[in-house]
């Protein structure tokens, strides 16, 4: 690992918002950063109009780019214009599931060129970004990770897990209880003019852990554009309405794909619902479509009610489960004050934080479902606290998806009294499992 002096000798950090120039075209540095990000994620080179659209989407998201640039690039190398490391962030509201939110510093586009690995680029970019986040008033940072071992060292904890599931059509129906409402097939274009976003807003409001979507994700999930930037040709859509009204309260987009073993299946692209009735009815509709063997969904929540609705619950297979949203506490009192709690109580919590932002000993008091965290000391007094843990594990606990009792059993949360993790688990309990269908 290069030391600070070596880093500053080799690299220059530049921070700037994605932007267009006076001529209305993306600035050269914005396009170069976009190309570097695409290289890092093995994406094909988009056409000029797609690159311009992407920059405009990032402008709409208020994205800031932090790049590490080689001071003395080799002749002819991309380092003459591209950053060797990329890192972006933008504001993104995270839902507490009760109609309230907290603004997060949403981190994205983290890449380091293979030729520049192990030179301290990621650490310097992360350190500068979090410092800027604190200065800008963010109480919490968030990210979704392409790898699961990178971000704990920076204080991030996995707060939501999601599942890839497959439901076998032959065993699924009929459901054990009747569904309600009306499902109608629509064109993807029908969803574009406000319908999909209105449903998502209602889903987001009731779903703890949900986050607002990036501007650029909407054409992809609604099927108006494919990942190549060209119009998608294989997307289908349907909506659900309650029987006593015309307002759409759920929608799904899907495509037909070949599954392993020669099976034909439906792959759900986007499934958004404001009510449980809409969710069940849209699943029943998908499982009723002829000429398909299975329905595959890659964003299922851990407490999926479909398991209990199926006529044969062995029709439901979990193919894969992994981390989704990671959270990093920057201002512990502000985060806990914004969150609703299920049970009143009080606990003293000692937090270690290698970067210092959330380190200390705090007293959490919850009354009437709202919490106040008071800092008792800048020191981490594990011996005098009810609970002691690292800031990364605090991030994992925040949404209620991870149990303090489980962390105590794993040895990463210390409690002198076994009743303390039980109390915290009750305090953090949520009506539904934390769930997010937003990637960034």
UniProtKB/TrEMBL annotation:
Domain (Enhanced intracellular survival protein) ranges: 332-435
InterPro entries registered for this protein in UniProt: Acetyltransf_17, Acetyltransferase_Eis, Acyl_CoA_acyltransferase, Eis_dom, NAcTrfase_Eis, SCP2_sterol-bd_dom_sf
Residue intervals of the Eis-like acetyltransferase domain: 209-316
Gene3D superfamilies in the cross-refs: 3.40.630.30, SCP2 sterol-binding domain (3.30.1050.10)
Active-site residues, record numbering mapped to chain: 151, 440
Record carries keyword Acyltransferase: yes
Quaternary context: Homohexamer; trimer of dimers.
Family from the record: Belongs to the acetyltransferase Eis family.
Protein name per its UniProtKB record: Predicted acetyltransferase
């Amino acid at each position: 690992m290069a030391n600070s002096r070596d880093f500053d000798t080799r690299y220059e950090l530049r921070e700037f918002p994605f932007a267009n120039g006076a001529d209305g075209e993306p600035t050269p540095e914005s396009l170069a950063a976009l190309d570097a990000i695409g290289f890092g994620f093995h994406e094909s080179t988009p056409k000029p109009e797609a690159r311009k659209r992407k920059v405009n989407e990032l402008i709409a998201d208020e994205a800031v780019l932090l790049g590490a640039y080689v001071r003395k690039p080799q002749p002819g190398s991309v380092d003459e214009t591209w950053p060797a490391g990329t890192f972006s962030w933008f504001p993104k509201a995270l839902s507490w599931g009760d109609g309230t939110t907290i603004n997060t510093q949403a981190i994205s586009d983290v890449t380091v060129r293979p030729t520049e690995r192990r030179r301290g680029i990621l650490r310097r970019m992360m350190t500068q970004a979090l410092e800027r986040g604190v200065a800008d008033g963010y109480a919490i940072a968030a990210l979704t990770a392409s790898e699961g071992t990178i971000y704990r060292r920076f204080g991030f904890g996995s707060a939501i897990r999601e599942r890839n599931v497959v439901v076998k059509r032959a065993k699924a129906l009929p459901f054990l209880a009747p569904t309600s409402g009306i499902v109608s097939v629509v064109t993807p274009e029908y969803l574009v003019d406000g319908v999909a976003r209105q449903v998502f807003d209602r889903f987001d409001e009731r779903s703890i852990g949900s986050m607002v979507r990036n501007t650029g994700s909407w054409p992809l999930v609604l099927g108006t554009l494919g990942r190549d930037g060209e119009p998608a040709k294989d997307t289908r859509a349907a909506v659900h309405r309650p029987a006593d009204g015309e307002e759409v309260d759920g929608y799904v987009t899907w495509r037909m794909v070949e599954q392993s073993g020669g099976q034909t299946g439906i792959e759900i692209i986007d499934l958004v619902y404001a009510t449980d009735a809409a969710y069940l009815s849209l699943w029943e509709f998908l499982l009723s479509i002829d000429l398909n063997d299975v329905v595959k969904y890659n964003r299922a929540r851990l407490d999926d009610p479909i398991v209990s609705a199926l006529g044969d619950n062995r029709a439901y297979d979990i193919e894969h489960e992994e981390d989704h949203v990671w959270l990093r506490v920057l201002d512990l009192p502000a985060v806990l004050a914004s969150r609703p709690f299920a049970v009143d109580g009080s606990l003293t919590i000692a937090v270690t934080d290698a970067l210092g932002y959330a380190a200390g000993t705090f007293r959490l008091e919850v009354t009437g479902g709202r919490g106040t965290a008071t800092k008792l000391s800048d020191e981490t007094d594990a011996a005098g606290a009810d609970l002691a843990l690292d800031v990364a594990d605090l991030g994992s606990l925040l949404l209620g998806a991870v149990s303090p009792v489980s962390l105590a059993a794993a040895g990463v949360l210390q409690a002198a009294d076994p009743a303390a993790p039980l109390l915290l688990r009750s305090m953090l309990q949520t009506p539904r499992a934390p769930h997010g269908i937003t990637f960034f």
